[in-house]
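fold description:
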Amino acid sequence: MFCILEYTETFINPSLIPNSMSKRRGGSRAGTRRLFRKSPRSKGKISLTKFFMPYKVGDSAVLQAEPAMQDNLYHQRFHGKTGVVVGKRGDCYEVKIQDGGKQKMVIVHPVHLKKVVV
């Protein structure tokens, strides 16, 4: 008499085991070498006029990074987007932008904003 046993082999993908997963390298400014750079003529100290620029609720502004100051900098995907100033939070401004089909609010220092003249 022959007894046939079914043998099933389970394969565990080693890349799915939590201990062997790789960690993400880099910080919030990873991959922004050319995106956040200044032109050679504009290098130097930050303009105080730009640093203390007042914005009113309803003003349109473009998100334009000032690479010399990393504090209160938005995420790289919002670079170059135009938004509307909604309010103020401390020294920074709340700017509402359109990201794809969603409205998003970004908190940005005025040094990273540029007024849009209508």
